[in-house]
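Our preliminary data section would be incomplete without showing what the modeling component actually yields. Below, a chain of 303 amino acids is followed by its predicted structure, encoded as tokens that our downstream tools consume directly.
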Amino acid sequence: MTRTRNRVRFGVNIGARSFAESLKICLAAERYGFDVVAFSDRPPESAPEAWTAITAVGVQTSKVVVTHSSLNVPFRNPALMAKMAATLDVILGPGRLELTLGAGAQRQHFESYGIPFGDAPWSFAGLRDAVHIMRGMWANDSFTYEGQVHSVSDASIGIHPADGHIPIGIAAMGPQMMRFTGRNADAWMKNQGWPESLEQLRGLVLQLEQGAEEAGRDPLVIRRALNGGAALGDEAVEQARAHVARGPSYLTGPHVYGSAEQVIETIETYREAGIDDFRFRFPDSLLFEQIQQFGEEVIPKVV
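Predicted structure:
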């Protein structure tokens, strides 16, 4: 494994919160040097709808990238999503919007909304169709595509991304989706917390890179993101561990915990394994303090 050609980035996972609090977090993240803010897309949760939330945050911030972790394809028609994304990209300007797509995993969430949801191959096929449809509609005045789950016929959106392209990342873990991501996507994100081990992470990255090489792509231009809990300093680490002790949460599994020096060392270890994008969820009780501390003590020291 080797480092990618991409600049390292840091982001904040917003979680299920009110919009007022979410906006405060995003403004703080932007102020202290974070690059990305990511919203959860789980409509049954008591939180603002994820696409509406990034739209509102995007127009009230100036440079932070808005995305999701991840945007679940079955909830939205891909052709309409192509127009929604192109519209927001034009509103915010190039480079402010990235799509992080997922096939969807919480069956009950979809069925409770009356949305069809099949097995893993069906979900993967739907995601694959969505990527082709969105890319095709951004690039053409009209587009036709016959997919396994989603299709379009002479479809147009009448508006196109500001620079012709919106980065598409895919949240993937299985071998087939990892290779598809390597062949087709601009980015990959590992959901479900930090890797169980460096061996697991290297195996995933290897599958991603094999997919890219099969398609004749340079694998080192594909952005790779990790997504999990973090705690900087003794007090935050103590609170994070107490949270874990109360039961399963976003802080279970290996963590980015410790002093600034320890956190930087962990980040560098992941970077050597091929990661260039880190999305953090900090302990709630110290959230704003953690964002400031991380922005002052860690971000400037990671090149």
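Residues 246-254 have pLDDT under 50 and may be disordered. The first strand starts at residue 9 and ends at 13. Preliminary results of this kind motivate Aim 1 of the renewal.
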